[in-house]
Amino acid sequence: MITSEDVRKISKLADVGIDDSEISEFTAQCSGILNYFAILDGLDQDVPFIRERYNVLRDDEVCPSLTQEESLQNAGHTEKGYFKAPRVM
Amino acid sequence: MKTLSFHPDDAVHAFITTIPHVSYGEGPLCGMTVAVKDNISTKGIETTCASRILKGYIPPYDAHVITLLRNAGAAIVGKTNMDEFGMGTTTENSAFGPTYNPLDHSRVPGGSSGGSAAAVAAGLVDCAIGSDTGGSIRCPAAFCGIVGLKPTYGRVSRYGLIAYANSLEQIGPMARDVGTLSRLFSVLAGYDRRDATSVDKPYTHTPCADIKGLKVGVPREFFGEGVNPQVADVVRQAIETLKSLGAQAIPCTIPSMKYALAAYYVTCTSEASSNLARFDGVRYGPPITSMKSWHDAFSDQRKAGFGKEVRRRIMLGTFSLAAGYYGRYYHKAQTARQMVRNDFDRIFKEVDVIAGPTMPDIAFKFGEKSDPLQMYLSDILTVPANLAGVPALSVPCGTVDSMPVGLQLIGRYFEEERIIDAAYAFEQEVA
Q1: Is the CB of B344 inside 8 Å of chain A's CB atoms?
Q2: How many whole angstroms from its chain centre is CA B254?
Q3: CB pairs under 8 A between A and B
Q4: ipTM for this prediction
Q5: What dihedral do alpha carbons B33, B115, B119, B194 form, nearest 10°?
Q6: Angle at B361 between CA B358 and CA B363, to 5 degrees
Q7: Of chain B residues 346-365, which have a CB less than 8 A from chain A?
Q8: B188 Cβ neighbours under 8 A, 6+ residues apart
Q9: Which residues, 6+ apart, have CB-to-CB distance to B227 below 8 Å?
Q10: What Cα–Cα distance (Å) separates residue B50 from each residue in B8, B22, B53, B308?
Q11: How far apart, in whole angstroms, are the C-alpha atoms of residue A30 and residue B416?
Q12: A76 touches chain B (CB under 8 A)
């Protein structure tokens, strides 16, 4: 069960914003879903993982990639060949 | 180069973007019209993932599958509607409005590749490509009465697929018949160095209808609680048809199904919360116009740009990965995922393919499932293949209330050939 305060906090952490009018709906829905996830509580955490993954590496050589112009073409704001983001402070 | 004109009568709203004049070259798919899900990057053609947050985004490069399709002579005629970022089972979660099921406009086409399925089923294109994270190719294929394949994880490059849940998703073919699906898949499969999970397993198979001796596992859980009994009956009949062609049906169980759906949703929302962090209005999408500082500006932008289901999943994923909850949710989900893999490994020692329904029910009416959890539960039969990474397809096998039912065939890793043969044998028999 999560509270409306939890939902406010998570929406802030995730930068997805939330309106006061949405809080009760999101709280009820997320609570219902997390209650369903509780089925995982009964699992033994010691089931060994079979890891078939390995890192795929290549030599550090320059390969064809996007030009600066192509990289910036979808940006709303650019300055001197850089992306321009909102102020941090 | 040759050209064709494409002006479909898109009464089902399958497309977000259509391309009126298309050039195409020579090759094995010469002149075949292909619709592409709008989360697959197409150079110079707007790619939105059916989200307001990517409105106006023009990819500067093609996804690997698009390069392959162009080199094979395919005519890419448009970008299809979908649930926003692939998050949904009905295509109702699109910023551009829903797609209609071509067989009954009061029903959903399934999702999230609903536009691709509807375009194929309505005869607007020869075939389509979609992406499948937890059933997003197979579900709409089942609901619209076409064939759809989720390949083995790694067999098709994901380079240029706008990521939602990387460890689960694959691009795959959709068509009206198994032969066309197989031809399309032979172009899509193969190694690409730009996808670190790519595996060098090309597909050069021609479907063969001889399935004598094929061992078909029939999991009890696929016919149990939550599955419409009429759908279950149609699929049992289809398995009888496979038996009449020389296959052998063997009962089996997948006990980890109990945990599969929760494991899937914890995993996909966790990956989504990370993947979708990049959509902040800085590098693509409508520009930020506010003078607010970093987090406030991003929050406003993302609240306005994402639909509710996307925000809900990002929040659930953020919660599952948060300090103090990680062990309870994400870690346990990975344990369950391993149990699903183990179940498939065990069963595939005894059988060649697994058969069951693709979806627990026929296509829903619009608005029928308004509660998110109820909607999630309808993915129960498709998510196990994504968790394990095994290939799975849906082939039409009958109707309930005049709506199509899909037979799902799941295979061993990199044995698409076998499930395609079984689907082909079935299709040839009932045609």
Answers
A1: no
A2: 22
A3: 155
A4: 0.94
A5: 20
A6: 95
A7: none
A8: B65, B68, B69, B129, B151, B156, B171, B172, B173, B203
A9: B357, B360, B361, B381
A10: 20, 22, 9, 13
A11: 37
A12: yes
* Beta strands B33-37; B215-219: pairing state: unpaired
Q: pLDDT by residue (tens digit) across B232-279?
A: 999 999 999 999 999 999 999 999 999 999 999 999 999 999 999 999
**Residue in this structure with the two tokens 């509660």, named with its chain if needed:** B371
Distance, in angstroms, between B367 CA and closest chain A CA?
Answer: 17
Does B262 sit within 8 Å of A40, measured CB to CB?
Answer: yes
Instruction: Return mean pLDDT, chain A.
Output: 90
Residue B207 tokens, joined = 């479907």
Phi, psi of B162 (to 5 degrees): -70, 115
The contacts of residue B408 (CB under 8 Å, 6+ apart) are: B138, B142, B222, B355, B356, B357, B358, B381, B382, B392, B393, B394
Give the residue among B204, B22, B238 at the shortest CA–CA distance from B126: B22
Residues whose CB falls within 8 Å of the CB of residue A25, separated by 6 or more in sequence, listed in order = none
Written as one letter, the residue type at B289 is: T
- Say how many domains are in chain B: 1
Which one of the listed residues B94, B131, B136, B186 is annotated catalytic? B136
Interface of A with B in 37-66 (CB under 8 A): 37, 39-41, 43-45, 47-50, 55-56, 58, 66
Which residue in B89, B69, B74, B94 sits closest to B14, CA to CA? B94
Give the structural domain span for B230.
Answer: 1-431
Between strands B248-252 and B215-219, the pairing is parallel
Query: Does pLDDT of A88 surpass 90?
Result: no
What residue of B is the nearest CA neighbor of A27? B312
| Residue B315 exposed, middle or buried by CB count within 10 Å (0-12, 13-18, 19+) | buried
What are the DSSP calls for B361-406, one per residue?
A: SSPPBTTS--SHHHHHHTTTTTHHHHHHT--EEEEEEEEETTEEEE
Give the predicted TM-score (pTM) of the model: 0.97
Distances, alpha carbon B250 to alpha carbons B145, B215, B218, B234, in Å = 26, 7, 6, 18
For residue B297, give the nearest of A50, A71, A86 by CB distance: A86
Residue B221 is classified by DSSP as: G
Q: Are B43 and B56 in contact (CB under 8 A)?
A: no
Q: Select from B184, B241, B226 the least CA-distant residue to B397.
A: B241
Report the CATH number that the domain containing residue B62 is assigned in CATH.
Answer: 3.90.1300.10
Contact with chain B for residue A13, Cβ under 8 A: yes
Q: Is the CB of residue B208 less than 8 Å away from at least one CB of chain A?
A: no
Interface test with A, best of B271, B321, B332 (most A CBs within 10 A): B332
